[in-house]
Amino acid sequence: MTILLLLLGVFTFVFSLSTAAWPRQKRDASAGKYTVMVVIILIFLCGIIVGLFRGIQRMQTLGAVKIHQIYDAKNHPVNSNILVFLTETQLSCCGRDMLDFYPIDHLPISCCADRAAKCTPEKAFKTGCVNSMK
């Protein structure tokens, strides 16, 4: 994206210098072409920005759906347990929606920042992983 904007700036600079040296009639004719090209490029850049924004929103939605699926599984396979542990560790969250997802006396160690001691509700992260992704 940065390279595209840099190229647009260089193109605008070179084209502006070249049109200043042309005679007046050619300059007037080229100004319309220049304006059309700039508008087309701006529309193209707006399309890229909107596409990126929509992609980010879609990834957040898919991530939230996947977290719900992992936490709702009754018999977690080993890979899901590892994924839950990594998610809670990296996002500093506990449970799917909030802390009370787990029984109070069986909070996993991934719910606490201090991994050396037993995890208690006082030490546990208060936000759920779905909310941490937003």
Question: Would you give an account of this structure?
Answer:
This protein folds into 2 domains: 1-58; 73-134, Cd81 Antigen, Extracellular Domain, Chain: A. Helix content is 66%, strand content 0%. The chain has helices at residues 2-21, 24-72, 78-91, 129-133. It starts with a helix and ends with a helix. The relative contact order is 0.09. Residues 1-16 form the signal peptide.
Q: Examine the coordinates and then state which fold CATH places here, giving the name of the CATH topology of the largest domain.
A: Cd81 Antigen, Extracellular Domain, Chain: A
Radius of gyration: 27 Å
Quickly give the structural class: mainly alpha
Low-confidence stretches: none
CATH superfamily of the largest domain: Tetraspanin
Q: Please indicate the count of domains.
A: 2
How much strand content do the residues show?
under 5%
Categorize the overall geometry.
rod-shaped
Approximate helicity band: 55-70%
Q: Let me know the number of strands.
A: 0
CATH architecture field of the largest domain: Orthogonal Bundle
Largest sheet: none
- The helix-strand sequence is HHHH
Whole-number average pLDDT? 75
Q: For the record, give the distance between the C-alpha atoms at the N and C termini, rounded to a whole number.
A: 24 Å
Question: Which key terms come to mind for this protein?
Answer:
single chain; 134 residues; mainly alpha; Cd81 Antigen, Extracellular Domain, Chain: A; 0% strand; rod-shaped; signal; membrane; Tetraspanin family
